[in-house]
Design brief:
The structure holds 2 protein chains of 2 kinds. Chain A is mostly helical. Helices cover 72% and strands 2% of the residues of chain A. The relative contact order of chain B is 0.15.
Chain lengths: 358, 428
């Protein structure tokens, strides 16, 4: 009914290979994009931007990054929080050292710095895999957080060890600092999300993405068919860290404005992003968005329902949140390892046949 | 996702703006590793406002509405709480977290809502000309560091030269705050300062205490919070560090910090910015009007303990500032800007504290536009394990203004320069 494919013919390879081969999907994508870019900036409030939309967009970038490494290339990483910290501190150092530099350049440069650090910590992946690699990246997580706490050069020798984002403008609009308008924060993040999601999608279906997936599925077989594991693994680490670094940079500059490394980029951040891609769907671009949306929205929805509407005590609701996230992770790992993305795919399959399933 | 967004939009609309009350958000944490401290503080904070509502019909005839929001001591949730409550006309924020405070200082300045960071947060907010909206009376971390050193000076006949003092601190903005002052004081008084950082959440302190056992410092100071305190007291007992030489700051000196170590914790000292008196008349009134009426925020078991008292004291100071603001502006229904004026004109006298039902709950102090930090006095208390209570050892001790004031000036001016603030009093 809804998904009518009748008459939707493909006459070229290009048309057949496009990201959204079904016309309905394609239109839906453009409608969502138009709403997000043309309507939301005009109606977004401080609360919606700071509590929902900006964190969602930033976590979506981080989840995309981790999904490239873990979902597409099969290299488990627990260092996401540490790499986000690299992005945030690079952004801080760049902002304070070069006050004239614009925020887009700063964000992209912090991504590149994180990519370099990511490649460095990705080197062990050439010799170890699975659990052992997870532990090696865990070491990266702890080392980076420790370093940003210990070396006071990174926080410009401030007494508290906090870093604060100074006010910066882009085309005359304030994008960082406390006086930022909600729409500016939102639009700035949306810009990066759209570009990076497009890059991620096209990388993962090109030759590089196929190399990653070959490594993920069976590294020895991949090597035999001519995939260079050094290039594939390190490029996955570089691209993934670039994404994570950009998200860390935005997390600090646009979203929070002041961070403390142990609190903002601790191990729990690594797990949060990992949970996002597990619940959203490993190896799926849509899954990264679904997982990020789910884990950002869930606590807020629970709070609105439980505390504001039903008047439950706040601690019960906070505990309920933990219970639900925990239960869902077990559920998804057992029942649907491909996460929300797979559920969405199945729903779509059903919808295409509906209402005549046979 | 679309569906959740729509349900959310609908609920947000339903929740909408409420009647004109005095709105006080309570950014509490009843979950996570810091809940042990967050629960009694929040109970005290809420119960006092409830008492005012029940007994006096609010403040100046205007009811107080406390909006509780769970932060879990987490900055992201703190921001979410701030954004969700500020639209309701919040008068003052008391986040009880230095991390969240750093987050909120610029935001609150932009929105014109005062912050009361009582004995925590950014120390240099004492300079009210730079931090118009932030108040940290009655005392701050640098005062605490100086009070502790002054106490030790007193114990040692005025001479600390050649002594070693170890600082065990929470490795965060909170724990790092006193270092600058302690370094200045070490130089002035000639003691050696050893710094031992403990990472969040603070359950792992074996190596730090091993180092203390090896180096045997004369005194250990602690800037701890949450589960870290209990572990530290236990570890100190394990390495047989003499408890009377172990001094926690005022966030490391509540009953739940010492009771897990049992008798071994006997003699542990800590600072306090308020006195403890479980028999104060105000607690009887809270029991009568709030707890027995079933309106308490918690189960009522915390009434009168250290952090409950401090939470209640925070509420008391907020209520007094509201009264002051009502008096200045001649209206019962005040705005956040009026609240700021009330806080800047706050005066706590002995007579007023007695009237409020708790004689000498804190030091006598007054706030001005220039000085947002109050008197900065603190006292030293000691745990008596057999009586299961903290007993005051000293009266309120003056901090060393000579050392602290230049540091505050330096730090606040650096902030002003970084953020393009021209120091000056806020015009009301």
């Amino acid at each position: 009914m809804i998904y009518r494919e009748a008459g939707d013919f493909k006459t070229s390879y290009g048309a057949d290979n496009q990201t959204f081969p079904i016309k309905f999907d394609r239109r839906g994508y453009y409608v969502v994009l138009a709403l997000a870019a043309l309507l939301l900036p005009f109606i977004v409030t401080d609360y919606w931007a700071n509590a929902l939309l900006v964190p969602f967009l930033i976590y979506a970038i981080a989840a995309l990054g981790l999904n490239i490494l873990t979902g597409y290339c099969g290299q488990v990483s627990l260092g996401t929080g540490g790499f986000m910290a690299v992005g945030a501190y690079s952004a801080y150092k760049l902002m304070t050292a070069f006050p004239w530099m614009d925020m887009i350049t700063i964000t992209i440069l912090s991504g590149f710095i994180t990519a370099a650090v990511g490649v460095l910590f990705g080197l062990p992946s050439l010799r170890i895999k699975g659990f052992y690699l997870a532990v090696a990246t865990l070491a990266a997580q702890f080392f980076l957080v420790w370093m940003f706490n210990k070396v006071s050069w990174f926080y410009n020798y401030s007494a508290s060890g906090q870093i604060n984002a100074p006010e910066r403008t882009l085309f005359g609009v304030i994008v960082t600092g406390p006086n930022t308008q909600a729409w500016a924060q939102y639009t700035f993040c949306l810009f990066f999300v759209v570009i990076l999601a497009w890059v991620a999608r096209n990388l993962t279906r090109g030759s590089l993405g196929r190399q990653w997936m070959a490594i993920r599925d069976m590294d020895i077989a991949a090597e035999i068919i001519g995939v260079n594991p050094l290039r594939a693994k390190l490029s996955a680490f570089a691209v993934s860290s670039f994404f994570v670094g950009v998200s860390g940079s935005l997390f600090f500059t646009i979203y929070l404005g002041a961070v403390e490394v142990g609190e903002a980029f601790g191990i729990q951040k690594s797990f949060l992003v990992l949970f996002m891609i597990i619940i959203g769907g490993l190896g799926s671009i849509f899954g990264s968005f679904a997982g990020a949306a789910f884990l950002v929205l869930l606590p807020v929805v629970l709070k609105v329902l439980g505390v504001d509407l039903l008047g439950w005590p706040t601690d019960i609701v906070a505990h309920l949140n933990l219970v639900i996230v925990g239960a869902l992770i077990v559920f998804f790992l057992v029942v649907e390892p491909h996460g929300l993305a797979q559920l969405w795919r199945l729903t779509k399959e059903k919808l295409r046949l509906w209402p005549f399933p046979h | 996702m679309k569906k959740t967004l729509t349900t959310l939009a609908v609920t947000a609309l339903l929740a909408g703006p409420a009647a004109a009350d005095l709105v006080i958000p309570d950014l509490s944490y009843r979950t996570g590793p810091y809940a042990a401290g967050g629960i009694p503080f929040s109970d005290g904070y809420q119960d006092y406002f409830e008492l005012l509502n029940q007994r006096d019909g609010g403040i100046g005839g205007e009811m107080v509405r406390v909006v509780e929001c769970e932060t879990g001591y987490n900055t992201e949730k703190g921001v979410e709480c701030y954004e969700s409550t500020k639209g309701e006309g919040a008068l003052v924020y008391q986040p009880l977290s230095t991390g969240i405070t750093y987050q909120l200082i610029p935001k609150a300045a932009a929105d014109g809502i005062p912050l009361h960071t009582m004995g925590y947060g950014r120390t240099s907010a004492r300079n009210g000309e730079v931090f118009n909206n932030v108040f940290n009376y009655p005392a701050n971390y640098w005062d605490a560091a100086s009070v502790a050193v002054n106490y030790l000076l007193d114990e040692n006949g005025g001479d600390l030269s050649g002594k070693t003092i170890a600082l065990v601190y929470h490795n965060s903005a909170y724990g790092k705050e006193p270092i600058r002052t302690l370094e200045a004081l070490a130089e002035k008084h000639g003691f050696d300062l050893t710094q031992l950082a403990v990472d969040h959440p603070g359950q792992e302190q074996k190596s730090q205490w091993l180092q203390i056992r090896r180096e045997r410092p004369d005194y250990v100071l602690m800037w701890g919070w949450g589960v870290m305190n209990q572990v530290a007291v236990q570890e100190a007992a394990n390495v047989r560090f003499p408890m009377e030489n172990f001094i926690g700051n005022w966030w490391a000196g509540a009953e739940h910090d010492v009771t897990p170590a049992g008798d071994a914790a006997n003699g542990y000292k800590s600072l306090n910015m308020n006195t403890i008196n479980p028999d104060a008349p105000v607690f009887d009134e809270i029991r009568e009007h709030v707890v027995d009426a079933g309106l308490a925020a918690g189960d009522g078991s915390n009434v009168g303990n250290v952090l409950y008292t401090r939470g209640m004291y925070a509420a008391m100071l907020a209520a007094e500032a509201i009264r002051k603001a009502q008096e200045i502006h001649g209206t019962a229904n005040i705005t956040p800007a009026m609240m700021r004026d009330g806080m800047a004109a706050l005066e706590m006298t002995e007579a007023r504290m007695e009237e409020l039902g708790y004689p000498n709950i804190g030091p006598v102090f007054s706030v001005s536009c220039q000085n947002h930090g109050g008197s900065g006095q603190g006292l030293v208390q000691q745990w008596n394990a057999s009586e299961q209570r903290f007993e005051p050892l000293t009266g309120f001790i003056e901090p060393d203004r000579e050392v602290i004031d230049p540091l505050i000036q330096e730090d606040s001016m650096a902030y002003a320069e970084e953020n393009g603030i021209t120091p000056g009093c806020a015009d009301s």
